[in-house]
Design brief:
This protein has 458 residues and is mostly beta strands. The chain is 6% helix and 35% strand. The chain has two domains: 3-95 and 111-284, Jelly Rolls (Sandwich), CATH 2.60.120.10; 286-435, Sandwich (Jelly Rolls). The protein is built from five helices and 30 strands. A hairpin with a 6-residue loop joins β23 and β24. The longest helix is centred in the last third of the chain and has 9 residues, at 383-391. It is globular and about 90 Å long. It is an enzyme of class 1 (oxidoreductase). It holds the Pfam family HgmA_N.
Length: 458
Amino acid sequence: MPVTHFATPDPYAYHNGFCCHHESEALQGALPLAQNSPQKPPYGLYAEKLSGTAFTAPRKENQQSWMYRILPSAVHRAWEPVPTQEYDATSLSGADVQQIPNQLRWDPFDFDDAVDWLGGLHLVAEAGDPVMKTGLAIYVFAAGQSMKANEAFYSADGDMLVVLQHGVLDLTTEFGRIALRANEIAVIPRGIRYRVDMPNGSARGYICELYQGHYQLPELGPIGSNGLANVRDFQVPRAFYEEDFNTWTLVSKFNKVLYRTSQDHTPFDVVAWHGTYYPYKYDLGRFNTIGSISYDHPDPSIFTVLTGPSYQEGTAIADFVIFPPRWLVQEDTFRPPWYHRNTMSEFMGLIAGDYDAKAGGPGGFRPAGASLHNIMSGHGPDAVTHRAATCTDLKPQKVGSGSMAFMFESCLMVGVTAWGLQHCQKVQPKYNEESWEPLVSHFDKSNVGAGAANQNGH
């Protein structure tokens, strides 16, 4: 029988803080002092370095961790491709991606209780190439079963940001355990091995895999030192290890193809670790919203939780943006998002409730659904929302109570897979027609000059 050891009595205990150096040991004295790789590590462990950036990356960008484990991760048999009849290879390949300007919206994606984490991943949209470490991929997942016994997984393609919409995910990682609940996110960096258990059955959500670089906190600029997602609210797992020398299967996603190998020991045998490269979680309810208190609707950038920057300063391969419950108090202002065309692509999802810029209900934007407005495709509030926003008495108003919408925003033109366009059978055929074609012209020049006279001086 395998034996599990935790650093604390609580198997889901955390360090707080992100973008920080952390250390953790499940056995006192397992972390060497002063030397990362001593000649004889404590307890007969092996020292192993996990590098998320080049050795020579600038100190402020360098991400790496030292692990002290029972056996090195190199101890396994040769990798072999997983036979395609064992999984739907088309759900991950992205070989059929189409870049289209049409606005798209999806009904809620179905649950699939017959599959586990690996079988439940479906690539919806993509831009870039994991071989060249450029771009991103967007998935939905829906599963109802834990991964097979003694099975673990990692992606060599990129960092996975997991947005859980429904259910419970218990993640066992090389660095410790993460209990993920709806309205929380987890980031599993490239190469870190983990398994997914679903103790309560069905789980569903979204993933943005960053092929290029790593997620980080956005700069705050004139906001100052506090606000948006605060460092102290990110949680990092504490070390634990298993003594298990049974046969384990390890699955790798390598350039969007699954490979597997076997080994005669658990991959979760890290007794201690320290460094700056690790998985972490964040409760979206802790986001500190910033907004306007005079006039005008600010850019959605003020709701950015994490960003995956490109090589152009201020431009992201992937921004993760949320729209939580918040107060709106602007005067003489159209409060919902204005109509716009953007040089960034916008993929939106809804975790719970109603999004204040779109009508819900059948045929609308609903929890577990999604939308995509690609580069320079015009979009904005639907006709119903526009009419309500222009006619309402602008008193201070709490919007989004019980709701949480989010956006994966990218500077890249995002292509949609055949699964996303046809196979999932969730695309709303009349999204454009029902949202914006009902808008009518209110242009009236019968009172020329009155517009300028009625301006409030802003």
